[in-house]
Amino acid sequence: MSSDAPRGVFITFEGGEGAGKSTQIARLAATLRAQGGREVVTTREPGGTKRAEGFREALLRGVAKPFGPFAEALMFAAARIDHVDGLIRPALARGAIVLCDRFADSTRAYQGAAGGLDPALIASLERVTLEGLRPDLTLILDLPAEGGLARARRRGGEGQEEGPDRFEAEALSFHERLRAAFLAIAEAEPARCRVIDAQPGPDAVEAAIRTAVAAHRPDLLPGEPASGDRDHAA
Ligand code: TYD
Questions:
Q1: What span, in angstroms and rounded, lies between the C-alpha atoms of 149 and 230?
Q2: What is the pLDDT of residues 16-67, one digit of tens each?
Q3: Enzyme class, one word (predicted)?
């Protein structure tokens, strides 16, 4: 593990449905690229590589659902292995900043806390899938479940004819468990995770994200005042 220790910076975005992750990833990527220092790679899960995008399409159509949460988690893990090996590790080895829309915390929250899969099983799966890879920083975009879900379903209605995907179609109680699960992850791993209030408009959320990134890695955003990060000093 130490011989191929990544030199880049791995930042993941997590949260429930409709929290605005993709907008914020695009904005942070533009900000980081404007710094002109490191290569910036944006990617997503499930997906990110050709093979994993194939899994994504099946997963979001609900192909794995009848097999139960364990089999579904295995399919997310299979997609993740291809993504980590084919895209994330090589980019980190080049020294890139990798911004990833969802990662292993989504398996903990969706298949674990909300889907009912044993956390010990998820931890084992994580260990063998990630082989020590951990995000340097995880930004959890937090929003009340009802508002986020309405946003995601509106967006789905505009962009696709087939209606809500496999997870958007879950009951509100599932999405409330998800929100609690992401907040619990943040509480359990405060050095890695920052909770960002996703309720204000996109500009305010973007500012909060910049502050969090600058507080965590001042070298990435040298012009950014990091003093607004009141809840975590280091
Ligand atoms: P996506 O359209 O990317 O959702 P969002 O825009 O909300 O990020 O679809 C990804 C879906 O897959 C989302 O509902 C979360 C779910 N998911 C899991 O259940 N487990 C996982 O490990 C990952 C990465 C995603």
A1: 29
A2: 999 999 999 999 999 999 998 899 999 999 999 999 999 999 999 999 999 9
A3: transferase
Q: Which CATH superfamily is domain 9-216 in?
A: P-loop containing nucleotide triphosphate hydrolases (3.40.50.300)
Q: What are phi and psi of 3, to 5 degrees?
A: -65, -35
What are the tens digits of pLDDT across the range 185-194? 999 999 999 9
Cα gap 62→78, rounded to integer Å: 16
Asked if 41 contacts 28 with a C-beta cutoff of 8 angstroms, the reply is: no
Is the Cα dihedral 215, 139, 40, 129 positive or negative?
A: positive
Report which ligand 1 atom has the smallest distance to the Cα of 22.
6
CA of 166 to the centre of ligand 1 (A): 9
Binding pocket residue ranges, ligand 1, CB within 6 Å? 17, 21, 45-46, 60, 76, 101-102, 106-107, 110-111, 152, 167
Q: Which of 43, 55, 110 to mutate to test the pocket of ligand 1 (most atoms within 8 A of CB)?
A: 110
The one-letter amino acid at 215 = A
**Separation of 135 CA from ligand 1 center, angstroms?**
17
Q: What residue segments make up the domains of the chain, in order of their start?
A: 9-216
Determine the atom of ligand 1 nearest the C-alpha atom of 167: 14
